[in-house]
Automatic annotation (TrEMBL), chain A:
Catalytic activity: sarcosine + (6S)-5,6,7,8-tetrahydrofolate + O2 = (6R)-5,10-methylene-5,6,7,8-tetrahydrofolate + glycine + H2O2; sarcosine + O2 + H2O = formaldehyde + glycine + H2O2
Sequence ranges assigned to domain Rhodanese in this UniProt record: 35-79
Keyword Repeat (UniProt): no
Signal sequence interval, chain numbering: none
Family as reported in the entry's similarity comment: Belongs to the SoxB family.
InterPro entries xref list: FAD-dep_OxRdtase, FAD/NAD-bd_sf, Rhodanese-like_dom, SoxB
Subcellular location: Cytoplasm
Organism of this sequence: Sphingomonas echinoides
Cofactor: FAD; FMN
Name the UniProt record assigns to this protein: Sarcosine oxidase subunit beta
Record key words, sorted: Cytoplasm, FAD, Flavoprotein, FMN, Nucleotide-binding, Oxidoreductase
Alphabetical list of PROSITE patterns matching this protein: RHODANESE_3 (PS50206)
UniProtKB/TrEMBL annotation, chain B:
The name this protein goes by in its record: Sarcosine oxidase subunit delta
InterPro entries recorded: SoxD, SoxD_sf
Domain of life: Bacteria
Lineage: Bacteria, Pseudomonadati, Pseudomonadota, Alphaproteobacteria, Sphingomonadales
C-alpha cells in the first residue's frame, strides 16, 4: 500500500495526478479461509482489520453482496458519541471513541473525525434531572459530560429558539465535548484499504446464500460466486441479521425496521455542534459540505424496503424547525433510508451463536455507526480466540434467555417502542 | 404511505395504525416459561411475508391481523383479530 501523505499529494499534483493506486484489490474468492466475515460494512471491515492487525491473522475474507460503503455505513447521520446511561453501553462506546480519536492516523485515511461536541437538549425540569443523572453516571466512569445551563446552551448554539413561548422550551443541556461526527463512507473505505494492505480479501458482489455444515458445525458458506470453506464464520450484516441467521436455522431477538435521514442544501457554517433531543427524538448536525443533516424516528414496524414513510420526515423536520427556526429557509435536497437491526432490548448482540463456528455481530438498532471501531475490535477478539472480549461479554446472545437484558430506554421487548 | 383496509372502517392511511408484534409471538398467561421466552425473543424476521398483529389505534381501536410483505409492503389480507383463533 502506497501511503497517503501531504508530500504524496503534492507530488501527484505536480505530475498530473497519475500514479495513484487502487485503494484495495478486487480478488477472486479463494477455496478456503480461516475466517469469513459476512458483510462489508464498517463493522465487518473493522473486524477484518483488527483480526489482521491485532491478532496477526492473514487468511481472512470479507464478503459483501453489494459494494463497499453502499449499505448502512453510508446511510447513517454520522454521529459519534459515547454518552449512554448504562455502564456496559458507555464502556463499549467510550472504547470506540478512544479508537475514533486515532483512527485517521492508524488507517492512514482521513475519516474526518470532528469532535465538535454532542449536545442533548433538556426541555423540562424532568429532562434536566434525567440528563444530570446520566452525566453523573458517565463522570463516575471517567467519561466526559458537562451539564449546561440555559444560558450556556444559548451561547453554544445561538440559532436555537430560546423564547419563553418556544414550541419546545430549552431548560439546559448535557454535552459530551469529545463527541461529534465522522465521514461515514471514509470509515468503510479506510478500513477496507488498511485491511487489504494486511492481506485481507475484500470481495464485493458476493452474496452469501447459505451455510455449509459438517457434523453440526459451520464449515463454510454458499455464495453467488461459489462455495467457500471457512474455519469460523462471522455474521456482520446488521439490517439483514434475521435472513442470514435463518440460513443456519436460527431465529434472533431482532426485527428489521426502516430509519430515514435527510439533508438540506449546503449553506455556510451555522451549527458547529451536534444537537440532539432525546425527548423529541430529533438530531441536527452540519456536514463539512455545508448541508444540514437531520434524522428522526424509525418507521416502527418491520420493513426491509429501504424507503420510509413521509410522516416521519415531516415530524423530524417540524421538530428541527421548531428548535432552530432558521432551518425553515432551507430546501431539503435528499432523503434516504436504511434498514436497522432492532434488537429486543435496544443493545447489540456480539458473541458466538448456538451453532458451532458461527458468530453474530448485529442488533445495533439505530446506533451502530458510532460503535464501528469497538465493534470490530471486540468481534475480532471473539473470532480469533473463541472468547468474548470483556467489553462485549454483557452483549452475549444468551442474555435474553437469562433475563440479563441491557435496556437503555427501559421499554421492554417491543422494538417499535424505543 | 401504506393504505390498510380496516374491516370495520374501510381503507385508511397507515399512520392511523400501530404495529404490535408478529402473530406467532403472542404470549399467554398459561404458557410454559420456555415457550413464553421463545415467543418473546425469537423472530423469523423474514425478508418476505409475515402475519402481524396491528391495531387501528387512531381509529376504531380494534386489533387486526395483517399478512404483509416486508420488502414490497404488499398487504394480502386484513382480518379482525379473533382471540380464540390466534393464540
Amino acid at each position: 500500500m502506497k501511503r497517503y501523505s501531504a508530500l504524496a499529494l503534492l507530488k501527484a499534483g505536480l505530475t498530473g495526478q497519475r500514479g495513484w493506486e487502487q485503494a484495495w484489490r478486487d480478488p477472486e474468492p479463494k477455496k478456503s479461509y480461516d475466517i469469513i466475515i459476512i458483510g462489508g460494512g464498517g463493522h465487518g471491515l473493522a473486524t477484518a482489520y483488527y483480526l489482521a492487525k491485532v491478532h496477526g491473522l492473514r487468511n481472512i475474507a470479507v464478503l459483501e453482496k453489494g459494494w463497499i460503503g453502499g449499505g448502512n455505513t453510508g446511510r447513517n447521520t454520522t454521529i459519534v458519541r459515547s454518552n449512554y446511561r448504562q455502564k456496559p453501553l458507555h464502556d463499549l462506546f467510550d472504547f470506540a471513541l478512544d479508537l475514533w480519536e486515532g483512527m485517521s492516523d492508524a488507517l492512514n485515511f482521513n475519516v474526518m473525525f470532528s469532535p465538535r461536541g454532542a449536545l442533548f437538549l433538556g426541555h423540562s425540569d424532568g429532562d434536566m434531572t434525567v440528563l444530570a443523572q446520566r452525566g453523573d453516571a458517565l463522570r463516575c466512569d471517567g467519561i466526559d459530560a458537562d451539564l449546561l445551563t440555559r444560558a450556556q446552551v444559548q451561547k453554544l448554539v445561538p440559532l436555537l429558539d430560546m423564547a419563553p413561548d418556544a414550541r419546545f422550551p430549552i431548560h439546559g443541556g448535557l454535552i459530551q465535548r469529545r463527541g461529534g461526527t465522522a465521514r461515514h463512507d471514509a470509515v468503510a473505505w479506510g478500513y477496507a484499504r488498511a485491511a487489504d494492505a494486511l492481506g485481507v480479501d475484500v470481495i464485493q458482489k458476493c452474496e452469501v446464500t447459505g451455510f455449509a455444515m459438517t457434523g453440526g458445525r459451520v464449515s463454510g458458506v454458499a455464495t453467488t460466486r461459489g462455495p467457500i470453506a471457512a474455519g469460523r464464520v462471522g455474521i456482520c450484516v446488521a439490517g439483514n441479521s434475521g435472513p442470514v441467521a435463518a440460513f443456519a436455522g436460527l431465529q434472533l431477538p431482532i426485527e428489521a425496521q426502516t430509519l430515514q435521514a435527510f439533508v438540506t442544501e449546503p449553506v455556510k457554517p451555522m451549527i458547529d455542534t451536534v444537537i440532539m433531543s432525546q425527548s423529541l427524538h430529533c438530531y441536527i448536525s452540519q456536514s463539512d459540505k455545508g448541508g444540514i443533516v437531520l434524522g428522526g424516528d424509525p418507521d416502527q414496524f418491520p420493513s426491509y424496503a429501504q424507503r420510509g414513510l413521509p410522516p416521519r420526515i415531516e415530524k423530524a423536520a417540524a421538530e428541527a424547525i421548531a428548535l432552530v427556526p432558521a432551518l425553515s429557509r432551507l430546501r431539503m435536497v435528499r432523503c434516504w433510508a436504511g434498514t436497522t437491526d432492532m434488537s429486543f432490548d435496544g443493545s447489540p448482540i456480539l458473541s458466538a451463536l448456538p451453532v458451532d463456528g458461527l458468530y453474530l455481530n448485529g442488533g445495533w438498532c439505530y446506533g451502530g455507526f458510532k460503535a464501528t471501531p469497538a465493534s470490530g475490535w471486540c468481534y475480532a477478539h471473539v473470532l480469533a480466540t473463541g472468547d468474548n472480549h470483556p467489553l462485549a461479554a454483557p452483549f452475549a446472545f444468551d442474555r435474553f434467555v437469562r433475563g440479563a437484558t441491557i435496556d437503555e430506554a427501559g421499554v421492554g421487548v417491543l422494538p417499535q417502542l424505543r | 404511505m401504506l393504505q390498510i383496509d380496516c374491516p370495520y372502517c374501510g381503507a385508511r392511511a397507515q399512520s392511523e395504525f400501530s404495529y404490535e408484534r408478529t402473530l406467532d409471538s403472542i404470549v399467554t398467561v398459561e404458557m410454559p416459561a420456555n415457550e413464553a421466552v421463545r415467543r418473546l425473543y425469537a423472530r423469523a424476521n423474514p425478508r418476505g411475508f409475515d402475519d402481524e398483529l396491528w391495531r387501528h389505534a387512531f381509529g376504531c381501536r380494534q386489533w387486526l391481523v395483517l399478512r404483509r410483505h416486508r420488502q414490497t409492503h404488499e398487504i394480502t389480507s386484513v382480518a379482525a383479530f379473533d382471540p380464540a383463533l390466534h393464540r
